[in-house]
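Lab meeting, item 3. Inverse folding demo.
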């Protein structure tokens, strides 16, 4: 059992995800979920950049968004390994990860119950 976090998730055109970016102890069961989260965050960004729908800006946010999540999961899983049978599984940790990519337009605010109609094309709204 090991716990490691790469010094970075990106170096130029090289991007790390999953086990290449972090090795997480199995105590807590979040290793695969963290890797899937990396792939999910990276996939839409790569798709936008390679299709010329975005500059490299979304890729610049990848490390800032995913590295703190991996650090938290590693810390939780390491604590679980030390705790023995009394460890916890934190389902909220991965479901509540918030990303603040500047390449994504913030969600519009409107009063509850009012239908949102916007001239903004759907591909420019968060989703």
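The presenter then showed the designed sequence:
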């Amino acid at each position: 059992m090991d716990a490691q976090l790469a010094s970075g998730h990106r170096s130029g055109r090289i991007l790390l995800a999953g086990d290449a970016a972090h090795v997480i102890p199995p105590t807590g069961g979040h290793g695969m979920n963290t890797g899937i989260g990396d792939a999910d965050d990276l996939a839409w960004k790569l798709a936008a950049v390679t299709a010329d729908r975005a500059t490299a800006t979304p890729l610049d946010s990848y490390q800032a968004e995913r590295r703190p999540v991996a650090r938290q999961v590693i810390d939780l899983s390491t604590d679980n390994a030390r705790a023995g049978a009394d460890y916890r599984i934190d389902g909220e940790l991965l479901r509540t990860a918030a990303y603040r990519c500047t390449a994504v337009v913030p969600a519009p605010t409107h009063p509850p119950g009012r239908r949102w109609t916007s001239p903004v094309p759907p591909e420019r709204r968060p989703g």
